[in-house]
Every structure is written in C-alpha cells, then in structure tokens.
From TrEMBL:
Pfam families: Trp_repressor. Coiled coil: none annotated. This is TrpR like protein, YerC/YecD. SUPFAM superfamilies: TrpR-like. It comes from Candidatus Woesebacteria bacterium RIFCSPLOWO2_01_FULL_44_14. InterPro entries: Trp_repress (IPR000831), Trp_repressor/repl_initiator (IPR010921), TrpR-like_sf (IPR038116), YecD_YerC (IPR013368). One of its GO terms (molecular function) is DNA-binding transcription factor activity.
Amino acid sequence: MRVSQNSLNPSLKNQIIKTFAQTISDFKNISQIKTFLDDFFTPAEIETYAKRLAIAYWLKKGRSYENIKGNLKVSSATIAEVKQTMDRPGFEQAIKAIEAEEWASVWTQKIQKFARLDRK
C-alpha cells in the first residue's frame, strides 16, 4: 500500500481521520456505503481491504493457508501479515460483526422454515 511521504500535523491527521470515519458512519444503508466506496476507492483498493477482512475471518474459522490462498488468490505472506494483526481491536470488532450477521441470518432462515411448517 502506498503511503504519502508528506506527513501531516498529528492533530490534523487525527481530525481528518475522525471526519472520514464519521462520514462513513453517517451513511444510512449498505447501498450508500457501497456507492461511496466505489466512487472513493479504486476497485483494486476495495478488493485489497475486502480480502484482508476475509482472510482474518477465515483464519478465525480455522481455514488453512492453502484454502485461503486458493480461494482469495493471495500469498502466504499476505495471510501471515493479516494473522499478525487480526488480534487488534478493529479486526476483532469487524469479525464479531460478521459473526453476528451470520448468526442472525441462520436464525432468520430457521424461523422462516418453522413459520412455513406452521402454516401447513
């Protein structure tokens, strides 16, 4: 990833990063967020960050490096880099959110199945 060589004043840097995070937080739905991401980042940047999150999630689920490499088309070095950082709070929060959504989806399907059976 390319990082600017012109460093910002730390206070200004903190302020603009908070503004960036708040902007994303203020979006009302996934469609708005997706539109922002598509317009703001290159397709390669979006894919890079999405893959990093997928790697962390799949490592947490116990998938092997080979499985992750084959499915996500990433190197062992990339997987190792993500593995070293996935215990950070941001990764942990993101994975918990994915797991919560996954859990909710599973239970929604089960409830719908039982509701259909109840109508018969």
